[in-house]
Amino acid sequence: IEIAFTVSKNVTAANGMRTFYIRIQKPTNEVLTKGATFSYEDRQIAYSMDRTVEYTGEELRVNAFWDVEEFLSAGNYNVSIFADGHMIGSKSFALK
Q: Which of 16, 83, 84, 86 sits between 20 and 30 A of 43, alpha carbons compared?
């Protein structure tokens, strides 16, 4: 599964390395994960994958890939993206 997103240009944001945490939730709300967690709102939550990239304040395209090693049932999957302690985006997709 490829997850691709764009971080908008923001000249007021601090430049530097940023880690983006990506959660993919199955139709049952179970997270596709290899057991990794990160801190969000004072608790540890599971995530599917992460990407650390250098952000310069300019628009930035980020791609990440989940290697499917389990059965994925048909239905709606939810993707959430987190950075700097905030959820910065979400989207859903359907498998038929």
A: 16
The two structure tokens encoding residue 71: 């059965």
Q: Work out whether strand 49-55 and strand 43-46 pair parallel, antiparallel, or are unpaired.
A: unpaired
**pTM for the complete prediction?**
0.93
User: What does the pLDDT look like over 81-95, one tens digit per residue?
Assistant: 999 999 999 999 999
| Sheet architecture: strand order including 86-95 | 49-55, 16-25, 75-83, 86-95
Asked if residue 79 lies in contact with residue 92, where contact means CB atoms within 8 angstroms, the answer is yes
Predicted confidence (pLDDT) per residue in 26-52, tens digit: 999 999 999 999 999 999 999 999 999
Tell me how far the alpha carbon of residue 34 is from its chain's centroid.
14
> Can you tell me whether residue 72 is helix, strand or coil?
coil
- Could you tell me the CA-to-CA distances from 60 to 37, 54, 65 in Å, in that order? 24, 9, 17
Q: Are 45 and 80 in contact (CB under 8 A)?
A: no
